[in-house]
Amino acid sequence: MPTTYRIGELAALTGRSIDAIRWYEAQGLIPGVQRDDGGRRVYDELHVGWLELMDRLRRTGMSIAEMRRYTVLVKQGRSSLAERQELLRAHRARVEDTIADWKRALKLIDGKIDFYGEWMSSGHRPQKTPSIQSAALPERLRKRPLKSA
Q: Is 44 exposed, middle or buried (0-12, 13-18, 19+ CB in 10 A)?
């Protein structure tokens, strides 16, 4: 017999609040939740993994609408495997773009940290402020001039 959990147990196991789990369920993002004879939700190990996936998709910027679409596709079974894979591939590409954008931002932040370190150690403002080549910037930022702070 598979291990089952009540909502409080699932919350403790996954580190999510009961309200968060109920929100995911209300959004249609937790498929296959059963209820016992008393009408209480009963979850199993699949729901533990599912909550982790939904949380990671949300944290990486997938919209709730896309998450719903993915959940609907999962409910359709094997016939939707290719569509599910494509949806996740497209999301992965967006995550990769975001990571690259964040790496560029981190490089600029590191340059500023070094700039201030040099200024504090020498007592004089360095001549050159850190910058990023405009070619390294995402298209949406190339149109705006960078200001040195």
A: middle
